[in-house]
Input
Amino acid sequence: METIAQQLGRVAFQITQDGLSQELRREASRRILDVIGNSIAATNQPATQVVNKIVKSWAGPADSFAIGAAKLPASAAALLNGTLAHAMDFDDTHLPSVLHPSASVVPAALAVGSKLGSKPTEVLDAITFGIEVTCRLGMAGFDRKLGNSVFFERGFHATSICGTLGSAVAAGMLMKLTADEITSAIGISASMGAGLLEANRTGGTVKRMHCGWASHGGVVAAELAQSGLTGPPTVIEGRFGFMQAYCGDQVNLEEITDGLGSTWVLPDLFFKPYPCNHFTHTGIDAARTLKAKGVTPDQIVSIDLGVPSPVLRTIAEPRESKIKPESGYHAAFSGPFTVAAAFYRDNGLGLFHEDFEDESAHDPQILALAAKVNVNASDECDAIFPFQFPAVLTAHLKDGTSMTEKVLVNRGGPQNPLTDDELALKFESNVRASLNPEKAREVAHTIFDFAENKTSLADLASLLERV
Output
């Protein structure tokens, strides 16, 4: 019988032979647009500049597309672009696994595809299946009784851990590896996945490079497999394998194999409308709605933000750090701050990058209102999580009345999707400091035309070479 890694390798290889549907390719192109926009927006972040400096010092042929660094060796380009893709916390999300798959897989595919001159449709197919592998692994570690990821419960960043394997599959597909070689790439990459979530709680910028390291590890694993290094075929389900090591016995391996090659997660991924932790988004939307109904900060005595229980540790604890975040980055993981900011800031898109700069994180008006926000577990939200990240927001006013707004479905997901035009607007807003509107639209059209091979990765690189 085939092991799980062998099944993944076989399906990946078959896709390289047969291709995928136009619909999936079109959806994959939307992921590229989103990743590129998020990445360009992050080029001036201190953490990404650190990675940029490091990879530019590495030796190797400069033959792969990289944002903000001309060309680099493929593994270095993957590290830089993956770091950029995740640095602003604006990348897409899969539910209920709570993974951000595109930020690892897309950079790996772009790095290898640009090096090899792959057809855009080949890149789109590799992205689609790499994301599929990433999310299926995440779902295998999702405990339905618990209603949360076992990876997450243990403090592991499943996005980067599972994303390493998904990136290896995507890279291997573009390298035209055989099914056995892709299986080995999976086995090798399983020893490379890493990432802890403590930075979400108490600080540090290391999480910004998690997806870059996953992308880098995936590319290196595929290169090693191509050169003859082998990995264990039982790496997923084995006694000392991937799932057992990270999740113990709380796994459901059927999540990886059921419907493999016939059902797809890609159309159900959630785009982020705001560049902050996804758990905060419905609270932001609820605050924006109350503001539109006439509620102003000076009227507010206190605010109750009801969220799913597992969310508390990310956006509510420790309270002292959440009501007074140390930086703009940490403000993006604060329920009190994001709700308060939504009452004061709105550039037409809601909260955007400027609202998570360090200066904004120290805005006395926002902090004064954030101190009035109490975040609590909500039974109603628990019943929906983690298939959505709902919020129930109640503002208690000085006149003795209260107003409540419920947002139970996330904007940007399949039940409330972003259109192509809205996604293009997000992209244009992300890149406005680097590209004029005309060039931004040209980039968007170039990427959307990938699905029909009307444009190439070289065309995209040419448009972005001075970013």
Summary: The two ends are 49 Å apart (CA to CA). Residues 120-140 form the longest helix (21 residues).
